[in-house]
Automatic annotation (TrEMBL):
GO terms classed as biological process: amino acid transport; transmembrane transport
Primary location group: membrane
Record field: transmembrane: 12-36, 42-62, 82-103, 123-145, 157-178, 198-220, 241-259, 289-311, 331-352, 358-381, 402-424, 430-450
Name by which UniProt lists this protein: Amino acid permease/ SLC12A domain-containing protein
Localization per Swiss-Prot or TrEMBL: Membrane
């Protein structure tokens, strides 16, 4: 085992900003407008409230597991220990693929923004630059990575806080807005009724809200590299969830209160439209900069999480043991290089095989988010039962999730319902069609190749 070589430098603020780096992505800046158009403002707020309740429950389950057993393998290790090694194997590969596939699309998004200002540089040129920077931020030492993620996450949070502040001033007519259909004092929220398109779109947006909150679980990946996890992990979880829920739901309330549901800019650039309508100069350039930092931060924290998953698989002998070697600074170098290589392959597949390979990869990624949360609830349910059965008392737990066994059972049920919802949504159905067979193939592969190793360990 080489886990003792990991540097234990991460503080609570690093875990919070790393988690925010993974969560605050293009979803909140780009997709919320589309959600408001689809389900109406009240429907979207309701969907995000449901999503935030689910993420709070998942994080409570994960908090108990990661405080009791802080390790870099996080949920894949908990799945192996408390459910089945095959389920742990699926979880690790699903989670690795989620961030690696995202890396490919993030490189394209970053390049698209870059080409607006430097049109002569091709996509591959920008991708190469971003690859080198992200690799350097992750490979030199943990202090460089955690500092970069801290400042980028801070900028994203401040951008949403400033927008929220401006939104409140617009809603209460303190700042005038040049928009002919604007209804002050939250009148816009119910201008077309509570659920203008019925309840079905709201269910679809609940699924989008779940994806929007994905990344919060990254705190558990960092627990194995944190100082005093008994204190830092619960602190990080609480502060992260408070920040996310206030910013996400507040932003949706502001957007829905200012722009009419029929406004075409909702689906494209609602933030730019609002900033332009209150005469903020260079509104589109400001948003481009914030988007650039948002996407880059997501790629940076995603590479961190994915590389630790590969290290953990190697550490458990389900990848060549040599891949578990750490640098003298406690960095899993091979995991980092393989993750970035996987991201570049995802990038190439999105360009050369968008309707086959890349479609399949993104479908697995969409399925993986709900699958990983389901596994966290399942692992927590089994852990607590095994813990008590072994003669322990809950008073021995340094952090105890509330409402056991109802909490993990609800997590499992809601995640299963989400998967059923995905199956009924024609735009997302492919996630089930490809995700379920992929999970079964992973499980069979583990059973055939690694069962003997598991018995020997």
């Amino acid at each position: 085992m080489s886990s003792h070589q990991f540097s234990k430098n991460l503080k609570a603020r690093n875990l919070i900003t790393m988690s925010l780096g993974g969560v605050i992505g293009t979803g909140i800046f780009m997709s919320t407008g589309y959600s408001i158009q689809t389900a109406g403002p009240i429907g979207t707020i309701l969907a995000y409230v449901i999503g935030s309740i689910l993420v709070c429950m998942v994080m409570a389950c994960l908090g108990e597991l990661s405080v009791h057993d802080p390790n870099t393998g996080a949920f894949h290790t908990y799945a192996s220990k408390y459910i089945n090694p095959g389920v742990g194997f699926i979880t690790a590969w699903m989670y690795w693929l989620t961030w690696t596939i995202a890396l490919g699309s993030e490189f394209i998004a970053l390049s698209t923004i870059g080409q607006q200002y430097f049109p002569s540089i091709p996509v591959w040129g920008f991708s190469l630059i971003f690859t080198v920077i992200i690799l350097l931020l992750n490979i030199i030492n943990m202090n460089l990575f955690s500092s970069s993620e801290f400042w980028m996450s801070l900028i994203k949070v401040l951008a949403l806080v400033v927008f929220l502040g401006l939104g409140i001033l617009i809603i209460f007519k303190i700042i005038p807005i040049h928009h002919t259909h604007f209804k002050p004092f939250f009148g816009q929220l119910t201008a077309n009724g509570i659920f203008p398109n019925g309840l079905i779109p709201v269910i679809s947006i609940v699924l989008s809200a779940n994806f929007a909150f994905s990344g919060a679980e990254m705190i558990a990946v960092g627990a194995g590299e944190s100082q005093n996890p008994e204190k830092t992990v619960p602190q990080s979880i609480k502060h992260t969830l408070i920040i996310l829920v206030i910013l996400f739901i507040g932003t949706i309330v502001a957007l829905g209160s200012i722009l009419p549901q029929s406004d075409s800019s909702l689906a494209q650039s609602p933030f730019v439209t609002i900033l332009s309508n209150i005469n903020i100069p260079y509104a589109s350039d400001i948003m481009n900069l914030i988007l650039f930092i948002t996407i880059f931060s997501g790629a940076n924290s995603g590479v961190y999480a994915a590389s630790r998953m590969l290290w953990s698989l190697a550490d458990k002998n389900t990848l060549p043991k040599g891949l578990a070697k750490l640098s003298k600074n406690g960095i899993p170098v091979y995991g980092l290089i393989l993750t970035i290589a996987g991201g570049l392959l995802a990038l190439f597949s999105s360009i050369y095989a968008p309707n086959t390979v890349y479609l399949a990869l993104t479908a697995i990624s969409a399925f993986a988010v709900v699958f990983v949360w389901l596994v966290i609830g399942w692992a927590h349910f089994n852990f607590r039962r095994q813990f008590i059965k072994a003669g322990h008392s809950t008073s021995e737990l340094k952090y105890k999730a509330p409402l056991f066994p109802l909490l993990p059972i609800l997590v499992i049920i809601i995640c299963l319902l989400s998967l059923v919802g995905i199956a009924f949504d024609p735009n997302q159905r492919i996630a089930i069609i490809i995700g379920v067979p992929f999970a079964i193939i992973c499980y069979i592969w583990h059973a055939l190749v690694y069962r003997k190793k598991d018995h020997h360990e």
